[in-house]
TrEMBL record:
It comes from the Bacteria. InterPro entries: RibLong. Residues 60-90 are annotated as: Disordered. This is Long Rib domain-containing protein. Residues 46-117 form the Long Rib domain. Residues 71-80 have a biased composition (Basic and acidic residues). It comes from Streptococcus anginosus. It holds the Pfam family RibLong. Signal peptide: none annotated.
Length: 119
């Protein structure tokens, strides 16, 4: 069974049990055997929270770190979801002479420019 839920909520799906031959398995009453499953669809945290980072001055030779604040769907300030992890997108490339890292547990981003790097 595959599908892409489009709304949050509790849903049920009923499936018919099939035998190895691909035909429905019949119960003692002669009717196909079915099984019902309940599942809950929730919005991904990435869709519910928006991290924001303050502008931060980077001085060559001195690492600069900024910690995110978060806003919820209603644009009100909130806390990060418990257990959230953070990463830099794999296609991100820091400018030449810069190193950018992210703390996977806090979302804090540290940027460092080598001494002599043009800013």
């Amino acid at each position: 069974i595959t599908g892409t839920p489009t709304t949050e909520g509790v849903s049920k799906v009923t499936v018919t049990v099939l035998g190895k031959d691909g035909n429905p398995v019949k119960g003692a009453d002669g009717k196909p055997v079915t099984e019902t499953f309940t599942f809950t669809v929730t919005t991904k945290d990435a869709d519910k929270y928006t991290p924001e980072y303050a502008d931060t001055l980077v001085t060559p030779g001195k690492p600069a770190t900024v910690t995110p604040t978060f806003k919820g769907k209603d644009n009100a300030e909130t806390k990060a979801p418990e257990g959230a992890t953070y990463s830099i997108p794999s296609d991100f490339k820091a400018p030449e002479g810069y190193t950018v890292t992210i703390d996977p547990n806090t979302g804090a981003i540290t940027t460092e420019a080598k001494p002599g790097t043009k800013i």
